[in-house]
Design goal:
By secondary structure, the chain is α/β, with parallel strands linked by helices. It folds into two domains: about 150 residues, Alpha-Beta Complex (Aspartate Aminotransferase, domain 1); about 260 residues, Type I PLP-dependent aspartate aminotransferase-like (Major domain) (Aspartate Aminotransferase, domain 2, 3-Layer(aba) Sandwich). Helix content is about 40%, strand content about 15%. The protein is built from 15 helices and 15 strands. The strands form three sheets. It has a seven-stranded mixed β-sheet, sandwiched between helices. It has a four-stranded mixed β-sheet with strand order 1-2-3-13. A hairpin with a 5-residue loop joins β14 and β15. α13 packs parallel to α15 and α14 crosses α15. The protein is globular. It starts with 7 loop residues before the first helix and ends with a helix. It binds pyridoxal-5'-phosphate. Pyridoxal-5'-phosphate binds next to α5.
Protein backbone atom coordinates (compact mmCIF):
# COMPACT_ATOMS: atom_id res chain seq x y z
CA UNK A 1 0.00 0.00 0.00
CA UNK A 2 1.34 3.40 -0.98
CA UNK A 3 0.12 4.96 2.27
CA UNK A 4 1.79 2.42 4.58
CA UNK A 5 5.11 4.21 5.08
CA UNK A 6 3.64 7.69 5.07
CA UNK A 7 2.78 9.53 8.27
CA UNK A 8 -0.66 10.91 8.79
CA UNK A 9 0.89 14.39 8.48
CA UNK A 10 2.31 13.47 5.04
CA UNK A 11 -1.01 12.11 3.88
CA UNK A 12 -2.77 15.20 5.24
CA UNK A 13 -0.59 17.63 3.37
CA UNK A 14 -0.86 15.62 0.15
CA UNK A 15 -4.64 15.48 0.30
CA UNK A 16 -5.96 18.52 2.14
CA UNK A 17 -5.69 22.24 1.64
CA UNK A 18 -3.06 23.40 4.08
CA UNK A 19 -4.75 26.76 4.60
CA UNK A 20 -5.60 25.96 8.22
CA UNK A 21 -2.34 26.20 10.18
CA UNK A 22 -1.68 22.92 12.02
CA UNK A 23 -1.04 23.76 15.67
CA UNK A 24 0.19 20.42 16.97
CA UNK A 25 1.84 17.33 15.52
CA UNK A 26 -0.67 15.11 17.35
CA UNK A 27 -2.46 12.25 15.65
CA UNK A 28 -5.72 12.61 17.50
CA UNK A 29 -7.44 9.43 18.60
CA UNK A 30 -10.28 10.65 20.83
CA UNK A 31 -11.44 13.15 23.42
CA UNK A 32 -12.46 12.37 27.00
CA UNK A 33 -13.85 15.16 29.17
CA UNK A 34 -11.26 17.92 29.01
CA UNK A 35 -8.51 15.72 27.57
CA UNK A 36 -7.43 14.92 24.04
CA UNK A 37 -5.75 11.55 23.58
CA UNK A 38 -3.42 10.78 20.70
CA UNK A 39 -2.83 7.51 18.89
CA UNK A 40 0.08 6.70 21.18
CA UNK A 41 -2.22 7.07 24.20
CA UNK A 42 -0.75 10.39 25.44
CA UNK A 43 -3.26 12.69 27.15
CA UNK A 44 -3.29 16.46 26.73
CA UNK A 45 -5.30 18.92 28.80
CA UNK A 46 -7.31 20.87 26.23
CA UNK A 47 -7.91 24.54 27.07
CA UNK A 48 -9.00 25.27 23.49
CA UNK A 49 -12.05 23.00 23.38
CA UNK A 50 -12.56 23.17 19.63
CA UNK A 51 -12.32 26.97 20.00
CA UNK A 52 -15.12 27.36 22.54
CA UNK A 53 -17.25 24.60 21.01
CA UNK A 54 -17.10 21.76 23.54
CA UNK A 55 -18.67 23.58 26.49
CA UNK A 56 -19.01 20.44 28.59
CA UNK A 57 -15.99 18.58 27.27
CA UNK A 58 -15.69 15.60 24.95
CA UNK A 59 -17.95 12.57 24.97
CA UNK A 60 -20.37 13.67 27.65
CA UNK A 61 -22.68 10.68 28.16
CA UNK A 62 -25.88 12.78 28.04
CA UNK A 63 -24.83 14.27 24.71
CA UNK A 64 -23.82 10.90 23.27
CA UNK A 65 -27.17 9.42 24.30
CA UNK A 66 -29.14 12.29 22.76
CA UNK A 67 -27.13 12.14 19.53
CA UNK A 68 -27.46 8.40 19.06
CA UNK A 69 -31.19 8.41 19.89
CA UNK A 70 -31.84 11.17 17.37
CA UNK A 71 -29.52 9.65 14.74
CA UNK A 72 -31.45 6.39 14.99
CA UNK A 73 -34.72 8.29 14.34
CA UNK A 74 -33.47 10.45 11.49
CA UNK A 75 -30.16 12.16 10.93
CA UNK A 76 -31.43 14.79 8.62
CA UNK A 77 -34.70 16.10 7.34
CA UNK A 78 -34.79 19.44 5.58
CA UNK A 79 -36.17 22.01 7.99
CA UNK A 80 -39.06 22.69 5.61
CA UNK A 81 -40.05 19.04 5.20
CA UNK A 82 -42.00 18.65 8.43
CA UNK A 83 -42.16 19.58 12.11
CA UNK A 84 -39.40 18.05 14.25
CA UNK A 85 -39.77 17.76 18.02
CA UNK A 86 -36.11 18.22 18.94
CA UNK A 87 -35.67 21.32 16.79
CA UNK A 88 -38.77 22.99 18.24
CA UNK A 89 -37.78 21.97 21.78
CA UNK A 90 -34.34 23.52 21.37
CA UNK A 91 -35.78 26.77 19.99
CA UNK A 92 -38.18 26.89 22.97
CA UNK A 93 -35.28 26.36 25.38
CA UNK A 94 -33.27 29.16 23.73
CA UNK A 95 -36.24 31.52 24.04
CA UNK A 96 -36.41 30.70 27.74
CA UNK A 97 -32.82 31.94 28.01
CA UNK A 98 -33.33 35.01 25.87
CA UNK A 99 -36.90 36.25 26.12
CA UNK A 100 -40.33 35.12 24.94
CA UNK A 101 -40.49 37.71 22.15
CA UNK A 102 -37.52 36.17 20.36
CA UNK A 103 -37.73 33.72 17.46
CA UNK A 104 -34.96 31.43 16.21
CA UNK A 105 -33.54 30.73 12.77
CA UNK A 106 -31.06 27.85 12.78
CA UNK A 107 -28.02 27.70 10.48
CA UNK A 108 -24.76 25.75 10.52
CA UNK A 109 -21.84 28.05 11.31
CA UNK A 110 -21.24 31.30 13.13
CA UNK A 111 -20.53 33.00 9.83
CA UNK A 112 -23.86 31.81 8.46
CA UNK A 113 -25.66 33.33 11.45
CA UNK A 114 -23.86 36.62 10.82
CA UNK A 115 -24.82 36.50 7.13
CA UNK A 116 -28.42 35.96 8.21
CA UNK A 117 -28.19 38.95 10.55
CA UNK A 118 -26.91 41.21 7.78
CA UNK A 119 -29.69 40.08 5.43
CA UNK A 120 -32.47 40.44 7.99
CA UNK A 121 -31.23 43.84 9.20
CA UNK A 122 -31.21 45.12 5.63
CA UNK A 123 -34.63 43.67 4.93
CA UNK A 124 -36.18 44.95 8.15
CA UNK A 125 -34.78 48.47 8.02
CA UNK A 126 -34.57 48.93 4.24
CA UNK A 127 -31.09 50.39 4.82
CA UNK A 128 -27.79 49.22 3.31
CA UNK A 129 -24.96 50.04 5.72
CA UNK A 130 -23.50 48.00 8.58
CA UNK A 131 -21.08 49.17 11.27
CA UNK A 132 -18.67 46.82 13.07
CA UNK A 133 -15.57 47.17 15.23
CA UNK A 134 -11.82 46.81 14.75
CA UNK A 135 -10.60 43.66 16.45
CA UNK A 136 -13.98 42.00 15.90
CA UNK A 137 -14.22 38.55 14.36
CA UNK A 138 -17.49 37.52 12.73
CA UNK A 139 -16.50 34.77 10.29
CA UNK A 140 -14.92 34.27 6.90
CA UNK A 141 -17.73 34.15 4.34
CA UNK A 142 -17.87 37.30 2.26
CA UNK A 143 -20.55 39.17 4.24
CA UNK A 144 -19.25 38.11 7.65
CA UNK A 145 -15.68 38.74 6.50
CA UNK A 146 -16.63 42.28 5.55
CA UNK A 147 -17.41 42.84 9.24
CA UNK A 148 -14.38 40.91 10.54
CA UNK A 149 -11.48 43.23 11.33
CA UNK A 150 -9.25 41.26 13.65
CA UNK A 151 -6.46 40.85 11.09
CA UNK A 152 -5.96 42.51 7.72
CA UNK A 153 -4.61 39.22 6.29
CA UNK A 154 -8.07 37.68 6.68
CA UNK A 155 -9.51 40.38 4.40
CA UNK A 156 -7.14 42.12 2.08
CA UNK A 157 -6.49 39.37 -0.51
CA UNK A 158 -10.23 38.84 -0.94
CA UNK A 159 -11.29 42.38 -1.68
CA UNK A 160 -13.59 43.85 -2.79
CA UNK A 161 -15.76 42.92 0.15
CA UNK A 162 -19.32 43.96 0.91
CA UNK A 163 -19.76 47.70 0.32
CA UNK A 164 -21.19 50.10 2.92
CA UNK A 165 -19.46 48.43 5.86
CA UNK A 166 -17.76 50.81 8.31
CA UNK A 167 -15.47 50.08 11.23
CA UNK A 168 -14.97 51.87 14.51
CA UNK A 169 -12.36 51.25 17.18
CA UNK A 170 -13.58 48.89 19.90
CA UNK A 171 -13.24 50.56 23.31
CA UNK A 172 -10.31 48.35 24.27
CA UNK A 173 -8.43 50.50 26.79
CA UNK A 174 -5.20 48.48 26.63
CA UNK A 175 -5.13 48.32 22.83
CA UNK A 176 -5.86 52.03 22.51
CA UNK A 177 -3.54 52.99 25.36
CA UNK A 178 -6.37 54.95 27.02
CA UNK A 179 -8.28 54.82 30.28
CA UNK A 180 -11.74 53.23 30.13
CA UNK A 181 -13.41 56.65 30.14
CA UNK A 182 -11.12 58.05 27.45
CA UNK A 183 -11.60 54.91 25.31
CA UNK A 184 -15.37 55.38 25.47
CA UNK A 185 -15.07 59.06 24.53
CA UNK A 186 -12.78 58.14 21.64
CA UNK A 187 -15.27 55.62 20.24
CA UNK A 188 -18.23 57.99 20.70
CA UNK A 189 -16.25 60.64 18.86
CA UNK A 190 -15.48 58.21 16.03
CA UNK A 191 -19.15 57.31 15.70
CA UNK A 192 -20.25 60.93 15.50
CA UNK A 193 -17.53 61.60 12.90
CA UNK A 194 -18.69 58.55 10.94
CA UNK A 195 -22.28 59.83 10.92
CA UNK A 196 -21.13 63.33 10.04
CA UNK A 197 -18.60 62.56 7.31
CA UNK A 198 -19.29 59.10 5.82
CA UNK A 199 -22.74 57.67 6.35
CA UNK A 200 -25.94 59.20 7.69
CA UNK A 201 -27.35 57.16 10.56
CA UNK A 202 -30.62 56.84 8.64
CA UNK A 203 -28.72 54.66 6.12
CA UNK A 204 -27.31 52.27 8.76
CA UNK A 205 -29.18 48.98 9.11
CA UNK A 206 -27.16 47.45 11.95
CA UNK A 207 -24.27 47.73 14.34
CA UNK A 208 -22.71 44.31 14.94
CA UNK A 209 -20.60 43.83 18.06
CA UNK A 210 -19.20 41.25 20.47
CA UNK A 211 -19.85 41.81 24.20
CA UNK A 212 -16.33 40.48 24.82
CA UNK A 213 -14.09 40.45 21.74
CA UNK A 214 -12.98 36.86 21.17
CA UNK A 215 -10.42 36.42 18.42
CA UNK A 216 -9.51 40.08 19.01
CA UNK A 217 -7.93 39.12 22.33
CA UNK A 218 -10.65 38.56 24.95
CA UNK A 219 -11.16 42.27 25.31
CA UNK A 220 -13.67 43.40 27.91
CA UNK A 221 -15.08 46.83 27.07
CA UNK A 222 -15.97 49.47 29.69
CA UNK A 223 -19.28 48.74 31.46
CA UNK A 224 -21.06 51.69 29.84
CA UNK A 225 -20.19 50.66 26.26
CA UNK A 226 -23.13 48.37 25.43
CA UNK A 227 -25.76 50.51 27.20
CA UNK A 228 -24.44 53.51 25.25
CA UNK A 229 -24.52 51.56 21.99
CA UNK A 230 -28.08 50.43 22.73
CA UNK A 231 -29.11 54.04 23.29
CA UNK A 232 -27.47 55.29 20.10
CA UNK A 233 -28.96 52.48 18.01
CA UNK A 234 -32.45 53.10 19.46
CA UNK A 235 -32.10 56.79 18.77
CA UNK A 236 -31.38 56.20 15.08
CA UNK A 237 -33.53 53.13 14.41
CA UNK A 238 -30.43 50.99 13.88
CA UNK A 239 -30.57 47.29 14.78
CA UNK A 240 -28.13 46.22 17.48
CA UNK A 241 -26.72 42.78 16.69
CA UNK A 242 -24.88 41.02 19.52
CA UNK A 243 -22.46 38.40 18.19
CA UNK A 244 -22.49 35.77 20.96
CA UNK A 245 -20.90 33.03 18.85
CA UNK A 246 -17.83 32.75 21.08
CA UNK A 247 -18.89 34.36 24.37
CA UNK A 248 -22.37 32.80 24.55
CA UNK A 249 -23.73 29.62 26.19
CA UNK A 250 -22.69 30.49 29.73
CA UNK A 251 -18.97 31.01 29.23
CA UNK A 252 -18.80 34.51 30.71
CA UNK A 253 -20.93 33.74 33.77
CA UNK A 254 -24.30 34.58 32.22
CA UNK A 255 -26.00 32.62 29.46
CA UNK A 256 -25.30 35.43 26.97
CA UNK A 257 -22.48 37.86 27.63
CA UNK A 258 -24.60 40.90 26.67
CA UNK A 259 -26.96 40.16 29.60
CA UNK A 260 -24.36 41.59 31.98
CA UNK A 261 -24.90 44.99 30.36
CA UNK A 262 -28.65 44.83 31.02
CA UNK A 263 -29.53 45.46 27.37
CA UNK A 264 -32.00 43.87 25.00
CA UNK A 265 -30.51 43.47 21.51
CA UNK A 266 -32.50 43.34 18.29
CA UNK A 267 -30.63 40.35 16.89
CA UNK A 268 -28.31 37.76 18.45
CA UNK A 269 -25.96 35.45 16.59
CA UNK A 270 -25.10 32.11 18.21
CA UNK A 271 -22.79 29.29 17.19
CA UNK A 272 -19.83 27.24 18.45
CA UNK A 273 -21.10 25.66 21.72
CA UNK A 274 -24.70 25.93 20.52
CA UNK A 275 -24.47 22.57 18.71
CA UNK A 276 -22.92 20.65 21.62
CA UNK A 277 -19.98 19.67 19.37
CA UNK A 278 -21.91 19.44 16.10
CA UNK A 279 -22.25 22.26 13.55
CA UNK A 280 -25.20 24.45 14.51
CA UNK A 281 -25.74 28.18 14.63
CA UNK A 282 -28.69 30.46 15.13
CA UNK A 283 -29.92 33.93 14.55
CA UNK A 284 -32.36 35.02 17.23
CA UNK A 285 -34.43 38.14 16.80
CA UNK A 286 -37.53 39.89 18.03
CA UNK A 287 -40.77 38.76 16.48
CA UNK A 288 -41.43 41.94 14.48
CA UNK A 289 -38.11 41.60 12.65
CA UNK A 290 -38.30 37.82 12.26
CA UNK A 291 -41.78 38.10 10.79
CA UNK A 292 -40.30 40.13 7.93
CA UNK A 293 -38.85 36.84 6.78
CA UNK A 294 -41.90 35.63 4.94
CA UNK A 295 -41.79 32.18 3.36
CA UNK A 296 -38.82 31.61 1.07
CA UNK A 297 -36.84 34.77 1.81
CA UNK A 298 -34.06 32.82 3.55
CA UNK A 299 -33.14 29.18 4.17
CA UNK A 300 -30.43 26.56 4.58
CA UNK A 301 -30.28 22.85 3.66
CA UNK A 302 -28.60 21.69 6.85
CA UNK A 303 -29.67 24.52 9.16
CA UNK A 304 -31.50 23.13 12.19
CA UNK A 305 -30.17 19.63 11.70
CA UNK A 306 -31.98 17.46 14.28
CA UNK A 307 -28.87 15.59 15.51
CA UNK A 308 -27.05 18.89 16.09
CA UNK A 309 -30.16 20.23 17.84
CA UNK A 310 -30.27 17.11 20.04
CA UNK A 311 -26.60 17.54 20.99
CA UNK A 312 -27.10 21.24 21.67
CA UNK A 313 -30.24 20.74 23.74
CA UNK A 314 -28.60 17.97 25.80
CA UNK A 315 -25.62 20.29 26.40
CA UNK A 316 -27.89 23.13 27.49
CA UNK A 317 -29.68 20.77 29.89
CA UNK A 318 -26.37 19.74 31.46
CA UNK A 319 -25.35 23.39 31.77
CA UNK A 320 -28.63 24.16 33.54
CA UNK A 321 -28.79 21.07 35.76
CA UNK A 322 -25.20 21.34 36.93
CA UNK A 323 -25.30 25.12 37.45
CA UNK A 324 -22.37 25.52 35.07
CA UNK A 325 -23.03 29.20 34.37
CA UNK A 326 -22.61 30.29 37.99
CA UNK A 327 -19.68 27.89 38.16
CA UNK A 328 -18.05 29.57 35.12
CA UNK A 329 -18.23 32.88 37.01
CA UNK A 330 -16.82 31.42 40.23
CA UNK A 331 -14.08 29.24 38.72
CA UNK A 332 -13.25 32.05 36.28
CA UNK A 333 -12.76 34.43 39.21
CA UNK A 334 -10.33 32.10 40.99
CA UNK A 335 -8.50 31.38 37.73
CA UNK A 336 -8.16 35.11 37.12
CA UNK A 337 -6.84 35.61 40.64
CA UNK A 338 -4.29 32.85 39.99
CA UNK A 339 -3.21 34.49 36.71
CA UNK A 340 -2.99 37.99 38.17
CA UNK A 341 0.59 37.80 39.54
CA UNK A 342 1.71 37.45 35.91
CA UNK A 343 0.83 41.13 35.44
CA UNK A 344 3.89 42.00 37.58
CA UNK A 345 6.20 40.56 34.96
CA UNK A 346 7.86 43.13 32.67
CA UNK A 347 6.87 41.11 29.57
CA UNK A 348 3.16 40.94 30.45
CA UNK A 349 0.89 43.84 29.57
CA UNK A 350 -2.38 42.70 31.10
CA UNK A 351 -4.22 39.74 32.57
CA UNK A 352 -7.98 39.80 32.10
CA UNK A 353 -11.01 37.61 32.00
CA UNK A 354 -14.73 37.29 32.33
CA UNK A 355 -15.90 33.92 33.55
CA UNK A 356 -14.05 31.24 31.61
CA UNK A 357 -12.81 33.59 28.88
CA UNK A 358 -9.34 34.22 30.27
CA UNK A 359 -6.42 36.02 28.65
CA UNK A 360 -2.81 37.01 29.19
CA UNK A 361 -1.55 39.80 26.93
CA UNK A 362 2.19 40.01 26.33
CA UNK A 363 4.17 43.22 26.01
CA UNK A 364 6.78 44.57 23.64
CA UNK A 365 8.18 43.65 20.22
CA UNK A 366 8.93 40.07 21.33
CA UNK A 367 5.32 39.49 22.41
CA UNK A 368 4.01 37.52 19.37
CA UNK A 369 7.18 35.36 19.31
CA UNK A 370 6.99 34.83 23.07
CA UNK A 371 3.35 33.74 22.70
CA UNK A 372 4.44 31.20 20.07
CA UNK A 373 7.18 29.87 22.36
CA UNK A 374 4.76 29.60 25.26
CA UNK A 375 2.26 27.66 23.15
CA UNK A 376 4.93 25.28 21.82
CA UNK A 377 6.44 24.66 25.26
CA UNK A 378 2.99 24.19 26.83
CA UNK A 379 2.21 21.55 24.21
CA UNK A 380 5.33 19.68 25.13
CA UNK A 381 4.16 19.77 28.78
CA UNK A 382 0.78 18.36 27.81
CA UNK A 383 -1.20 21.59 27.78
CA UNK A 384 -3.05 22.82 24.69
CA UNK A 385 -3.64 26.59 24.58
CA UNK A 386 -4.45 29.11 21.87
CA UNK A 387 -3.31 32.57 20.82
CA UNK A 388 -5.55 35.58 20.12
CA UNK A 389 -5.26 39.33 19.63
CA UNK A 390 -4.82 41.54 16.60
CA UNK A 391 -1.05 41.07 16.97
CA UNK A 392 -1.35 37.47 18.16
CA UNK A 393 0.24 38.67 21.37
CA UNK A 394 -2.38 37.18 23.68
CA UNK A 395 -2.87 33.71 25.14
CA UNK A 396 -6.49 32.81 25.70
CA UNK A 397 -7.78 30.03 27.88
CA UNK A 398 -11.14 28.54 26.86
CA UNK A 399 -11.66 25.60 29.24
CA UNK A 400 -14.75 23.43 29.33
CA UNK A 401 -17.30 24.89 31.75
CA UNK A 402 -17.16 21.68 33.81
CA UNK A 403 -13.37 21.42 34.04
CA UNK A 404 -12.29 20.60 37.58
CA UNK A 405 -11.12 23.79 39.31
CA UNK A 406 -7.92 22.23 40.69
CA UNK A 407 -6.98 20.97 37.24
CA UNK A 408 -7.43 24.47 35.82
CA UNK A 409 -5.38 26.01 38.62
CA UNK A 410 -2.69 23.39 38.04
CA UNK A 411 -2.64 24.27 34.34
CA UNK A 412 -2.26 27.94 35.26
CA UNK A 413 0.76 27.04 37.42
CA UNK A 414 2.26 25.22 34.43
CA UNK A 415 1.51 28.20 32.18
CA UNK A 416 3.21 30.61 34.59
CA UNK A 417 6.29 28.40 34.70
CA UNK A 418 6.32 28.13 30.90
CA UNK A 419 6.08 31.91 30.51
CA UNK A 420 9.08 32.31 32.81
CA UNK A 421 11.05 29.53 31.10
CA UNK A 422 10.47 30.92 27.60
CA UNK A 423 11.16 34.61 28.33
CA UNK A 424 13.92 36.50 26.47
CA UNK A 425 15.16 33.77 24.19
C1 LIG B 1 -17.59 36.05 17.68
C2 LIG B 1 -17.55 35.15 16.50
N1 LIG B 1 -18.44 35.31 15.51
C3 LIG B 1 -18.45 34.51 14.43
C4 LIG B 1 -17.53 33.50 14.27
C5 LIG B 1 -17.55 32.63 13.05
O1 LIG B 1 -17.96 31.37 13.38
P1 LIG B 1 -17.68 30.14 12.38
O2 LIG B 1 -16.20 29.91 12.39
O3 LIG B 1 -18.47 29.01 12.96
O4 LIG B 1 -18.18 30.56 11.04
C6 LIG B 1 -16.56 33.30 15.28
C7 LIG B 1 -15.54 32.24 15.13
O5 LIG B 1 -14.53 32.22 15.77
C8 LIG B 1 -16.57 34.14 16.41
O6 LIG B 1 -15.66 34.00 17.39
Amino acid sequence: MATQHKTLADRYSESLATVVPMETPWEIERGEGSYLIDRAGRRYLDLVMGIAVNAIGYAHPDVLRAVSAQAARHMHVYSGSGYQEVVVAYAEALREETGPDYRVFFGNSGAEAVEAAIKLARLHTGRPAVVAFRGGFHGRTMGALSLTASASRYRSLYEPLLPSVYHLDYPAPTRLGLSAGAAMEHVAQQLSQLFLCEVEPSRVAAIVVEAVQGEGGYIIPPADFLPWLREVTHQHGIMLVMDEVQAGMGRTGTMWAYQQAGIDPDLITLGKALGGGLPLSALMGHRDAMERWTAGLHGSTFGGNPVAAAAGLATLQVIREQGLIARAAAVGASALAALEPLADRPDIKEVRGRGLMLAVEFLGPDAPAHVQRVIAESLSRGLYIHPAGVRQDVIRLIPALNLDEDVLLGAIDTLKQVIADTAHE
